[in-house]
Amino acid sequence: NAGVTQTPKFQVLKTGQSMTLQCAQDMNHEYMSWYRQDPGMGLRLIHYSVGAGITDQGEVPNGYNVSRSTTEDFPLRLLSAAPSQTSVYFCASSTLGASTEAFFGQGTRLTVV
Amino acid sequence: KQEVTQIPAALSVPEGENLVLNCSFTDSAIYNLQWFRQDPGKGLTSLLLIQSSQREQTSGRLNASLDKSSGRSTLYIAASQPGDSATYLCAVNQGGKLIFGQGTELSVKP
Fold it and tell me: What separation in angstroms does the CA of B90 have from each of A30, B22, B51, B103, B107?
């Protein structure tokens, strides 16, 4: 029962470096999304995808890129990391439709110095 | 724009008490509402999902209600235990996107 798997769990980056946060799900869910969680701000939607080849922006997309080449994977790319991107990142997946329940990964704690 | 508010932000109770956590939202056009639990440094665990057409859902000692017309949901925890200590988050689903409240941090004292 893997569910939603995120890697890595922890990462420290220097300002300007790039990296990719990985997210994979084994439930054949069409919908996948990325959130960031910051103290006092709650969880905010970064990007989402309703299926392979389709992505769209959420509430806070600047500084992040995504792609969805397969149903299972939805990586999040930071092209040039900034200290403001220090956060905990969560990936979620669900089926499409009104009755869907969202499942979350365990998170990636990212620090940009 | 949908806004979700959770009150109180923090709550401390003695073991055995029944308690209610509140969640309010400004736009009633939602697919469903989901309650999550988050332990420190961990991910989100889904507790209960209430569809927009439902009034309540129950799982063990947990009962969640939904009043869409007034924009309110409550999570009732019966006979609280120290293991219930965690942050509880509610999220409304609009078109597949989840909009979260900021959570209620619950501490249950032995």
Answer: 23, 9, 13, 7, 17
Chain A, chain B: beta-carbon pairs less than 8 Å apart: 63
Nearest residue to B72 via CA among B29, B34, B8, B25: B25
Q: How far apart are the first and last CA of chain B?
A: 41
Q: Residue ranges of chain B with pLDDT lower than 70? A: none
The three-class DSSP label of residue A83 is helix
Asked if pLDDT for residue A99 goes beyond 80, the answer is no
Q: What is the pLDDT of residues A50-88, one digit of tens each?
A: 999 999 999 999 999 999 999 999 999 999 999 999 999
A113: burial class by Cβ within 10 Å (0-12, 13-18, 19+)?
A: exposed
Q: Pick from B33, B44, B45, B50 the residue to mutate for testing the A interface (most A CBs within 10 Å).
A: B44
Q: Vertex A70, ends B43 and A53: CA angle to 5°?
A: 105
Contact A42 B98 (CB under 8 A): no
Q: B64 forms bridges with which residues in the sheet?
A: B57, B75
pLDDT at B95: 82
